[in-house]
Amino acid sequence: MKRAMPSSWRPADKQFSQLQPRRARRIELRRVILAMVAAASVLAVVGASGTAGASTNGNITGPPGLSNTVNTIENLPLYRHSDWGISVLDEKSGQAVVTQNAQKMFDPGSTMKLYSVSTALRLYGPNYQFKTPVYREGTVAGDTLNGNLVLVASGDMSLGLREQPNGTLYYESLPKIDQSYADIGVPGDYVEPPGNPLAGLDQLAAMVRASGITQVNGNVVIDDRLFTAYSGFPDGLIAPIWVNENLIDVVVTPSTVGQTASINWRPMTASYTVESQVSTVAAGQSTSVMITEPTPGNLVVTGQIAAGTTPTLVVREVDDPSAFARTAFIQALQSAGVSVSAPATGPNPEALLPPKGSYQPSDMIGEHVSAKLSQFSNLILKTSYNRGADLMVCLSAVRAGSTSCPQGLVPEVKTITGLGVPSTSVFPFDGAGSDDQGRTTAAAIATFLRRATTTSYGPTLYNSLPDFDRSGTIAGVLPKSPAAGHAQVKTGNRIVQTPANQILVLGNSLAGYIHTKSGRHLTFMIVVGNVPISSPQEFETITRQQAQMVAAIRQDM
Question: What CA–CA distance (Å, rounded) separates 242 from 193?
Fold first, then answer.
């Protein structure tokens, strides 16, 4: 879809087809406006007394606040053609305290990230750190290496970019939107992570110089054999090496009306040139910018930006992460005082790599050590980082002995079934929940979350979920809610648009943990499927109404 969406159509962790000409890009969304109405279904609730009941017309019995909230929402005309799935379990006993179509399959969107991230945490452990080393291959005479430098990719998606002095990774919460979504062509308050996107490479280059090497008579090679780079998931290329998360960030600043907008981009390397063809239009007009690549390595920013507005961030994924990293590393070496005889640009010379596993510890002259995997879990689940979740699948494949990313779904299913969830109730096709073939039941996620509390990674998973109304993709969903501070909630949504501009919410879900007012600890999933909406502005109310259910559970159960 090439036309610009209204400014209220804000991406969070969803996906929307046809927004990006480069590929079928899907966005997960969360913030929108109040919708008018929604549909009837049957819900059974076990109240505090342990009794359950449901009338034939779909109204529920149970705690009055919860009953009224659910009945009011589910009998709205908006949901006339929709299905609801709800599963709320007592964390201690496993008792199903609320259930509705709990065994019915739904397309839940990004709540599927709970499975992929948990699998990586299980296989690697929350305290795992990515180690990205540099080796010398050849002989050293004085300060000269007669041979090659090899940087071995570890799957570290930050490589210094988001690392904070206290060991955490930086992330954004709504209404600000993390930079990973700034390639969808929809206006929004996108934010670059602060700091130097080449920090990891600069650190490694300084280590090479500190080893005494000032001249490399040879080449620089990226060893990207950890797994085979994969573009079969819906959200882009997943590679073993990440520099600036394999993005070119371009900040567009309006000029005077009729003049070309100015741009600034990072990281500035010899891999890409960037040209602005963005026109500055009158204040009050719409802003819409995008990046194209008419010839390899030459990016052109087109569109328009309204005078007097704040700068706009738009990003472009690099096509060859290994070549991009190699060029950036050679330039980092040069800045550190290390000359390289090979040209900085060009393809990654992988034919120069030594046999896998042949590196000698004595030849390692630098190593970047990442934040803990628990911090990557926090980043991915709080921002609903699609490519990050897909990376967890690739890394799970590696731990299982494969270099094929799709094989990482095998240990993911093992993680799920290992916690007692039937394999027939969960079908992952990617790590992000962006593939519309993916399915899960409400009971599966609620059960998974409950039993995850008994695992070594359970506390990490819990703390990685957005804090209801306060952080991540759930921030600001229901201001002054009694559930704020008492629920950890992952959002998930799937939205598509037809060529006739019909918009269908395939699935919208909330899942996580609730600590109730009475002292109970519950796990839950609330999901609705197949909701037709007339405009993007109608979407936010769906999430808000589900959040009202969460608040009612908090107050009444």
Answer: 14
